[in-house]
Amino acid sequence: MTPEDHAKLLKVAGLLASDNAGERANAAARATEILERNGMSWTDALASVPVETLFVSDTISVEPVFDDEVTRLRSALATSEAMWRSLAEELDTVKPPESSIL
Q1: Rg of the Cα atoms in the chain
Q2: 72-101: per-residue pLDDT in tens?
Q3: pLDDT at 9 exceeding the cut of 90
Q4: Rounded distance, CA 37 to CA 44, Å?
Q5: In a domain, 9, yes or no
Q6: What is the pLDDT of residues 21-64, one digit of tens each?
Q7: How far, in Å, CA of 38 to CA of 6, rounded?
Q8: Residues 43, 24: Cα–Cα separation, whole Å
Q9: What value, to the nearest 5°, has the Cα angle with vertex 20 and ends 19 and 22?
Q10: Rounded Cα–Cα distance for residues 52 and 42 (Å)
Q11: What is the maximal distance between C-alpha atoms in the chain?
Q12: Is residue 73 part of a domain?
């Protein structure tokens, strides 16, 4: 693309954000003419625009599976009950006998 056409394209591209629909349409047509005159398409023109690299986790939505959540909660409950029994046993070993209570 010639430097002159590049400068024109930049100017016209700014008009693509106009509040006026007619101005936007004219700018799009003019930009397309400039690109075609230089043997380019919009795809060619935008190919060099940097693209943000996405992580797979940004593009995949995983819905929680009900069964997995139930399994997790049952495991947490079993752990809590085991801890409760352990603490109750420990408390029984340190609790003073009934006769020593004032």
Answers
A1: 35
A2: 888 999 999 999 988 988 888 887 766 655
A3: yes
A4: 13
A5: yes
A6: 999 999 999 999 999 999 999 999 888 888 777 676 667 776 76
A7: 10
A8: 19
A9: 150
A10: 19
A11: 103
A12: yes
d(CA 79, CA 85): 10
Number of domains in the chain: 1
Residue 102 predicted with pLDDT over 60: no
Residue 92 placed within a domain: yes
Q: Which residue has the tokens 């049952």?
A: 74
Q: Considering the domain boundaries, does residue 102 fall inside one?
A: no
Full 3-state SS string of the chain: CCHHHHHHHHHHHHHCCCCCHHHHHHHHHHHHHHHHHCCCCHHHHHCCCCCCCCCHHHHCCCCCCHHHHHHHHHHHHHHHHHHHHHHHHHHHHHCCCHHHCC
Q: How many CA atoms lie within 13 A of 80 on its CB side?
A: 6
Domain range for residue 22?
A: 3-97
